[in-house]
Amino acid sequence: MGMKTIAVLGSTGSIGRQTLGVLRADPTLGKVGVLAVRSDVKLLLEQTAEFHPAYVAVEDETAAAAVKDALPAGTKLLVGKDAASVAASLDEVDIAVNGISGFAGTEPLLKALEAGKTVALANKESIVCAHSLVEAALQKGGAIIPVDSEQSAIFQCLAGGRKNEVKRLWLTASGGPFRTFSKERLKSVTVADALKHPTWNMGAKITIDSATLFNKGLEIMEASYLFDVEGERISVLVHPESIVHSMVEFNDASTLAQLSKPDMRLAIHYALAYPERQPSAFGALNLAEVGKLTFEAPDAERFPSIPLAYAALKEGEVLPIAYNAANEAAVARFRRGEIGFYGIVSAVEYAMEHMPKGKVRSFADVLYLDREARRLAEKAMEKI
């Protein structure tokens, strides 16, 4: 195969910028064919000047109008709410890196898979909310290579055994900035406190999700759907050093782990080079310097996001959508200082309890249920 053409969805976000950093460090991994953003056209134009993509996609129509005449000759502009979905499914694209934050990454994932693309997936919300649709879309010839550090680790460790030999998946969690905080102290933490992650440099939403462990809850569901392993065989370990990114336990009592420095660029590099392993400039590890690796069980009382995730996964259908949507709505309010840390949990619990029952048969169903869960979360937060 010749040089891969890569679409970077969410190119101005944390994952997008790191993807371009990986390609800058190793241009042999592929050429940038598409850059897709919501509205940050200032950075988009800088990226376009450097990487010369054939297409740029801008969701916000006002922002797109401002960029239209500034694009270099030969770069085409896609505009509108479905711009990223169109960009991800272009004939020229081989790999779509889905770095779009939150639920908004769902439709681009589905469209890319339906078009037979390989998706390097950093967006866990999409597979959590639309997993049955994702499974159907995968039948069209597309593939998913996970870019989340934990799911990438499991993906890599699974190469060491057969599927029927897997006993348990172990997801690791840093524990975030509040790992040692008492429940009483957690009630008064601020947004600024939540954004001070001890080991990872990530976007604001995922950093807060790491502080609440809702990020890990989403990953429990994502791992179940990605690797076809039921929730009863997925466990979480708090590992503050963030060196062991996850593990797979096999039925002969062997456990394989993937280790590196906490650097998302390593997982991105692996996905872009797959199925080969190519030399990387990122994530090199000196265990003598690290000195020790520690592990502990998560505290479900201080961090109810974990048991809520298992409950959502066990019920399936509507509840994973409610878990994600209510959390997104509540995190937005938390970031504005309108609710406290446990207000997020309360909003998710309320939405999950009051969601209508039913089957998810179409993307229209997913959109309706997402809106309904956000409405319920807002209703709950009005009472807090």
Explain what this protein looks like in three dimensions:
Helix 8 (149-157) packs parallel to helix 12 (214-227), helix 15 packs antiparallel against helix 16 (318-335) and helix 16 runs antiparallel to helix 17. The protein is an alpha/beta fold. It contains 18 helices and eleven strands. The protein has helices at 14-25, 41-51, 61-67, 83-88, 106-114, 124-129, 131-138, 149-157, 183-186, 191-194, 204-212, 214-227, 264-273, 287-290, 305-315, 318-335, 341-354, 363-382; strands spanning 5-9, 31-37, 55-58, 76-79, 95-98, 118-121, 143-146, 166-173, 234-238, 244-250, 255-259. It has a seven-stranded parallel beta sheet with strand order 4-3-2-1-5-6-7, sandwiched between helices. It has a four-stranded mixed beta sheet with strand order 9-8-10-11, with helices on one face. It starts with a strand and ends with a helix.
How would you summarize this macromolecular structure in one to three sentences?
By secondary structure, the protein is α/β, with parallel strands linked by helices.
Descriptive tags:
single chain; 384 residues; 7-stranded parallel sheet; 15% strand
Q: What is the CA-CA span between the terminal residues?
A: 57 Å
Could you say which structural class the secondary elements and strand pairing correspond to? alpha/beta
General shape: globular
> Stretches where pLDDT falls below 50 for ≥5 residues?
none
**Sequence of strands across the biggest β-sheet:** 4-3-2-1-5-6-7
Please provide the ordered H/E string of secondary-structure elements: EHEHEHEHEHEHHEHEHHHHEEEHHHHHH
Mean pLDDT: 93
> How many E strands?
11
**Approximate strand percentage:** 5-15%
Largest sheet: 7 strands, parallel
Percentage of residues assigned to helices? 40-55%
What is the gyration radius calculated from CA atoms?
20 Å
Individual helix count: 18
